[in-house]
Every structure is written in C-alpha cells, then in structure tokens.
Amino acid sequence: MKEKEYFVQREVLDEIRLDEVAQKGTWSVKPTLGERVKESLRCSGPRLKHILLSWIPVLGWLPHYSFRENAIGDLISGCSVGIMHLPQGMAYALLASLRPVFGLYTSLYPVLVYFIFGTSRHISIGTFAVISIMIGSVTERLAPDSNFIVNGTNGTEIVNLDERDAYRVQIACSLTVLAGIFQILLGVVRFGFVVTYLSEPLVRGYTTGSACHVCVSQLKYLFGVAPSRFTGPLSLIYTLVDLCKLLPQTKVPELVVSLVALSVLIVVKEVNACYRQKLPLPIPIELIVVTATIITHFCGLTDKYYIDVVGEIPSGLKAPRAPDATLFSKVLGDAFAVAIVGYAINISLGKTFALKHGYKVDSNQELVALGLSNTVGGFFQCYSVTSSLSRSLVQESTGGKTQVAGLISSIIVLITVLKIGSLFEDLPKAVLSTIVFVNLKGMFKQFMDVPSLWKTNKVDLLVWLVTFISTILLNLDLGLAVSIGFSMLTVIFRTQLPHYSILGNVPGTDLYLDIEKYKEAKEIPGIKIFRSSTTIYYTNAEMYLEVLQEKSGIEIGKLLTAKKKQQAKQKRKQEKEKKKAKKEEKKQKKAVKHLPNGTFSLKESEINKRKVSEETNGQRQGNGVALTLKETTANGLSKGRVNWAYQPDTTISESDSDTGCHGDDSITQVSHHSDEEKGKASGSGTHSIILDISTTSFVDSVTVKTLKNIFRDFGEVDLEIYLAGCQACVVEQLETAGFFSESIPKSRLFVTVHDAVLHILNKLGRKDFMLDMSCNTQM
C-alpha cells in the first residue's frame, strides 16, 4: 500500500501574526450577565412549556406512549419487578433495622414519584442493600436496644420492641427527608457533576465493602443467634468475633431453613442466568421461596422450634406524617453521605442503560427526581431509595421500555400491602436473609476488579483497596469520607508529579517527541524543548522550574551567582587598574618637578599624550566584549551574544592590560576565549529554550509569576525563552494577568513548537539546518 503524504507550506506564525491571519475577534459570543438574567425572567408560551417538560419529564413522553410497541413488554417487566419488590423490600428493611412492612412502603411511594420526575427508562427505584445498611447503622446508633430496656415479669429486663421500632422509623424518615432535600438542592443548582468526584473504582470498592457489612449483618438470622450491637470503627470486626463466640448456640432449625432456602435460590438463579435467552420470563424463585411461610404456618415451626418470623404486617396504608426535625442535626452527615452514595449508584446505572439503548439521562434532573422520591417517601414512612442492579437488569431484560413498568410494579406492591400482606406474617427471617445473600453475588464479583486493575492501572487499584479497607474498618460513613479524601489526593499527586520531557525533532517532519522514548527524535543543537504532561498551576509550578533546570542542564542559580562574581571580579580589576594608573601619574609628576623649567612643557605634553593613549587602550580593552559579540555573529549560534554566566573567567590578563600597544591582540584573545567557553556552557551550547505548554488548560497567579521569573532569570544569562502551543483561553488569561510586556512580547509566543524552532533558526541564519527540517511528512 502506498504511503500517504501531505505537504504544508505557510509562514511561521507567532501569536501576533496568528491573530492577523486567523482574524481573531474581540467580540464575545457569550451573553452578558444582564442578558442572562433578562432571558431567565422572560416569560412566553414556548419557554413555559420547555420548563415544564424539563422539570416534569413524564409530560413529554407519556402523551406519545406507544401501546403497540411498549405495552406488552412493560406489563411483563412490571409484573416481574413487582414480584421481586416484595421479598427484597421485606429483606432489606431488616438491614435498615426496621420492620419488613416499611420495606414494602419503600417499594411503593418512591417508585410512583420517580415515574413522574425520572429520566431513565430502565432503572428500578426502591430498596437497595447498601443504602439499607447505611440507614441501619444510623438507626442502631441513635436507637440502641439499651435505651428501651424495661422491667419484665419475674424481675427480668426486656426490650420494648414497639417503642424502639417506632423511634427507629422516625430516625429513618428524618434521615431520608434530609437526604432528599440535599439531593433536590444539588439538582436545582445544577450540581449533578459532583458525582464525577466519585470515580468508578471508588464506587465499586465502596459497594463491595458495604456488601461485606450486609453479609455480616445477616449472619445472625442464618444461625439464629443474637450478637451484641456495635457501632463506630471496627464494628464489623467486633460483630464477627461475637458471632464466632455464639456459634455453639446456633439454632439448628433456623440453620436448616437457611441452607435449604439458600441452595434453592442459588440453583434456580443459575438456571435463570444460563437459560435467560430461552426463558420468556425468569423463574420468580424469590417469590416461590417466600411461600415458605405456608410451610412455617401449617407445620407450626414457630411454636415448636422458636423460628424467628417477620411478625405482624398491618394491612392498608398509613397517613403521611411530618418527620421529626429535631433529629436533623443528629443525622446531618449521614444524610449527606446517603444522598451522594444513592445518587452515584443511581446515575451510574442510568447512564449505563441510556448508553446501551441510545437515549440521554439528565444528571441534574435525576438528582431532583431521586430527591423528590426520598422527600415524599419520608413523609409516608419510607426510608432512602436508589436503583437496584438486580431489579433493573430484570426490568430491562424482560422487555421493559419505559417507566410504565415501574408503575405496574408499584401497583403489585400496593395490592400486596392492602390485601395480602398478612399472608407473610409467618415468613422466617432466615429466608429473607438468604434472599439478601444471593442478591449480593453481583457485588462480590467486583473482587475480580483487583487483578484487572493490577494489570491496567495501579493507582485505581490503590483507590479501590483503600476504599474497601476503610469501609470495612471505619464503617460506612467514615469509610466514604476517607475514600473520597484519598481519591482526591491521588488526583493532586498525579498533577504534582507529571511526566516532564525534553523533545526532539523527528527528521523530515514537524513532529517533536520525547527523546527518551523515541530513538529517531533528535535534539536541535542549541535549542531545548521542554514539555510537562499536565497543567502548570500552583501545586506543581515550583517543580516545573526545578525539572526544567535539571532536564536542560542549566542551573540558573549557579549561573547567576557565577555572573555576579564575574562582574565583581571585573569591577575590582578595573579599580585596581585605576589605582595603578594614578600611582604612575604621581611618579611622573614627581619626576617632572626635578627637571629644568625649559623641559617642563615638553614632558607635560608627552604625559598628556601618554594619558590619552592609555585611556584609549583602556576603552578598547573594556569594549573588547562588545567587539567580540560582533565577531562571533558570523560563526556562533548566539547571534552576537555571549552567555556571561557560562564564562568562568573572561577577564583580560594583567600583562595585556599594562600596555596599550597590545589592545588588538587582547580583543582577539577574548573573542577566541569566549567562543571556547560558550561551547562549554551547558554541555551543548544552549542558547534558546522552548516551553511547550499545549497541555496547560488554565493558568493561575503562581503560574504567571513562575513564567515571568523564567523569562527574567534565563534572560539574565542570555538565554532566549519562547512559549509554544498555548491555547486561546490560556492566552486570554495571560493577557488578563498582565503577563505580556516589553520584556515578554507576544512575539515570543508561537502557534506550534515547529514555528518556534524555525523562527530561532531563521534568526540565527541557520538556513542549512532549516532545509533539513522541511515538512514533507510521511503518514
């Protein structure tokens, strides 16, 4: 196949010339603040319609709902998800340390609210294990059993379960309403991007750690034991230790029920997974297992073996009740954590399905929808909700096309609460705990992230591990805070420790690549091209300057010190010569006094001539550097400049300065000496440095000051500094910061590195080298 080529012929463009060629405009395409305010206050029919459709999405899609295309799929999907809601709602309510009926309420009201305000077509809103365990940690912390102990019969102490459960419901509802308010406020101020700070490794590590908390919390139902309740850091470890101590007290009947239910669930779930393409509907094994309530009821297992069951499930709906606002201060931090985690799970699932099916999910509207679901649900004694992966997958795989499926599922839950809820009163809690265990399979599969991240990105692996370990050891609230802080630190460290490189030209192209990674990339003699892999700002500006000196081999501090010493040495030598000249003059005056009067005028004229000659020679010696600069123009790369800081000693020797007759020879010597020392300047005779700042997306005051210092300090040692690849927004920021001046003109800023290189070579008269860099680039 023939290689493709392209040819570019244009003039070298600096920033000034670019503005002329590209006709940079001074107008602003953005509306002013006044115009934006006026636009936001303007009222019209189309604008009102747009606002209504954006805030209440159901008004946009429901009138155009296609019964022919969507009705059957949504009906089947809604029934399947509704059947899953029943056992999962009751099981996850136990995680929240609430009675199972509140899980059914939570599977009803928030789903209806999301149907109206949500933008995702496939996610299933309701109870979720991670959110449930977060709620449970708060309810148990603020309402422990020890606060509700009363004196029973025969002097024994018992826990007032009714009072305890009622107070826990108040706590859960207050926390849910507050979390919903946080989500609504964040959505209204268009703060949906906040979830981007929760990276995927962080969310997956956190949910995996939360799954471990869920698993441990359900072990007591599997073994039929009652471990002590622990809160705070290391509570998971303490609970495990206590469970191990209580294993000899395991209730065998409950363990048998758990193992049988677990076996059946696992087998049928695997069958559903293997034959999901052939089965019209997944086998509703969770609902089938829940029918164990029939066995428990008719076999009298509760009375014979004291198996712990769900208990009373009141029929009907309860009237809405305002949450206890006095609890807000106690659950403030927990509510914010629940709001962020719930939204992170919700939006990640929503965007996954949206990408798969080709529609868009509005992140800010999702915040509002989830916040309204929580706020309204909190008034109806629901606890915080988010989307569930298992239910969402079923809703999507069974043909669900819209949130009508969610509406149908909520109707099924409503019928259950109103009419058949009492049938589940004899359901063993051990069966519900096995349902929770089986549904944790997807989260535990996230442990496979560890080998995958080890191969792809070790920093993300570190975030995953730190998040998981902190969640396990420090509990859910502190673990989330620590993991977010650590994730932020990794970002900061990565910007503080970028990759710096010296670039070289690939012969015959306009490409400039890292000379350490590309063999064909060759440095241009006398020119150093320096690039950072990230934005230069206050955290890495100092390191940028340090690495620039290290990579270019130019230690600016030492060079400036050497220059100052050189200047001081020259000054001392000049003063020494002046003193010596004065002494000679005094000696000659004394000699003249002893001569006859007739010869005085003659000697005086000779002295005057000699003084004039010495002054002339002194000036020629003093201006030897200037002459040298002119002489080196033809041959040197410095175009008439000598880097004084590179010269250890360019002073004229005392023997040459004593007499004026050797002035021309001394100039030649200085010139020759300067050329020799220039070659030693920095190992390669560097005369120009190009800073490639194409990766910089913004500049702050520290960056501007650093760049100014680079121009000033390197300029003092006669090194030319140029900028290349600066984005238009960065140029505007530099102009606003007053970066450009007479000492740093805009002509030092070039469109590309290649433009800067050609400018320097043209300035030095290196036509031969320019011919070798023609842009006949092969692709």
From TrEMBL:
Q: Which PROSITE patterns does the record cross-reference, listed alphabetically?
A: SLC26A (PS01130), STAS (PS50801)
* Gene Ontology MF terms: secondary active sulfate transmembrane transporter activity
Which keywords fit this entry according to its UniProt record?
A: Membrane, Transmembrane, Transmembrane helix
Single GO cellular component annotation? membrane
- Please name the Pfam families in this protein's record: STAS, Sulfate_transp
Record's subcellular location: Membrane
Q: How does it sit in the membrane?
A: Multi-pass membrane protein
Q: Would the keyword Membrane turn up in this protein's UniProt record?
A: yes
Q: Where is this region: Disordered?
A: 565-626, 651-685
Q: Which InterPro entries match?
A: S04_transporter_CS, SLC26A/SulP_dom, SLC26A/SulP_fam, STAS_dom, STAS_dom_sf
Q: Where are the transmembrane segments?
A: 92-117, 123-139, 171-193, 255-275, 287-307, 327-349, 461-493
Locate the compositionally biased regions of type Basic and acidic residues: 574-587, 603-614
Sorted alphabetically, which Gene3D superfamilies does this protein's record hold?
A: STAS domain
For whether the record's keyword set contains Transcription regulation, the answer is no
Q: Describe the location of the STAS domain by residue ranges.
A: 517-760
PANTHER family named in the record: SULFATE TRANSPORTER
- What protein name does the entry list? Solute carrier family 26 member 6
- The organism encoding this protein is Amphiprion percula (Orange clownfish)
